[in-house]
Amino acid sequence: MRFGVNYTPSEGWFHHWLDFDLDSVRADLDSVAALGLDHIRVFPLWPYFQPNRTLIRPRAVEQLRSLAVAAGERGLDVNVDGLQGHLSSFDFLPAWTRTWHRRNLFTDPDILHAQAAYLRTLAAALADLPNFLGMTLGNEVNQFSAGPHPDPDRATGDQIDTWLERMLAACEEGAPGRLHLHAEYDATWYQDDMPFLPAQAARRGAVTAVHSWVFNGTAQRHGRASVPAEHHAAYLVELSKAWAEDPHRPVWLQEVGAPAPLVPAEHAAAFTEATVRNALDCPDLWGITWWCSHDVSRQLADFPELEYGLGLLTNERKPKDTALALARAAAAAAPAPAARTTALVVPADPARRSACAPGGPVYDAFFRLTADGARPTTVLDTRAADRAHLARRGITEVVPPDQVLPTPQGGTRS
Questions:
Q1: What contacts 336, CB < 8 A, 6 or more positions away?
Q2: What is the pLDDT of residues 276-292, one digit of tens each?
Q3: Rounded to an integer, what distance in angstroms lies between the CA atom of residue 263 and that of residue 219?
Q4: CA 382: distance to chain centroid?
Q5: What is the mean pLDDT of residues 132-148?
Q6: Under a CB-based contact definition with an 8 Å cutoff, are residues 132 and 78 in contact?
Q7: Biggest alpha carbon distance in the chain?
Q8: Cα distance between residue 307 and residue 302, in whole Å
Q9: Which domains are seen in the chain, by residue range?
Q10: How many CB atoms are closer than 10 A to CB 159?
Q11: Eight-state DSSP code of residue 350
């Protein structure tokens, strides 16, 4: 089991690449390593690293490598996200993709060639480092492909599949044999018209990545201490397994955090403990990577209010109660979870994904089962009668959502 953190620099946020200070980075990494974590996820900003379609700045790539080396010196492995892309409500896209040079991020041949070259270059620069885990294509790049983005780059599911295949191949060319993957926000699992599909998330790349945020309607509907809020990350882990072809495909809980004010600061540690405990009860979990390492400085303007305080550590690198909760989990020897033998049926049709979203019948049924003490997983309706598939996954009971009755607790932990 891996425990890590998404690295947000304490000085300058991700704009630190413009004024890169290795001593400051080392101090940040010291504060992360002191928590007993074993990896970080790193975010080069795409426009800073590839400001022109045919220019990948060597100095920026050298700085990324120096960060990875510093992490290795502190016992931290490194995953690198390439196409940033989108972070904390801000879009960071190169000028050669927008306005006067507007071209589709997922279908334009010149853009695809440049993206592949960029990902290949970053991967190759780190390929010889023993602590380099691999590449993530980018952070939640699916948000560029559909609404509610105000200016989406529309694409079909087939076009996205071609894009994923080409970009993952570029990462593999740069660093063969490493853990290369892609990662989307939960619209992939919940939004009917999202062209990034659940089957792609569960089959493309070395592992399945899920990002769990209870501000998606979960905490608003049910409260911070509810079964749905405290088990939302576990739900996404188990939901992803319905589409996987490998019955033991690893799932990485790559982003999860305690967003205020839905989770007030005084309750964040308890939320962290519950979320981690419930995620650890999911078989085949690769690891948990908390969002995020350090707070966003109040000197930086225009972030959504919740973004400023999500760090495990303050800008002065002091650990919060959430950091100590995660550190305790990382230090403990968690037993291997038993197989989940009850499977909730979910629609295979991606145009019916909203059934799995907050308020949908699959979502509600999952948490009713959980509140009743069950440990459910999921299975596609097209596989629900496939005895061989069920046996490979250890499933002995298949339950349609409409057969799960409401519990007396209403899905809320007493």
A1: 283
A2: 999 999 999 999 999 99
A3: 8
A4: 27
A5: 97
A6: yes
A7: 61
A8: 10
A9: 2-331 (3.20.20.80), 342-403 (no CATH)
A10: 15
A11: G
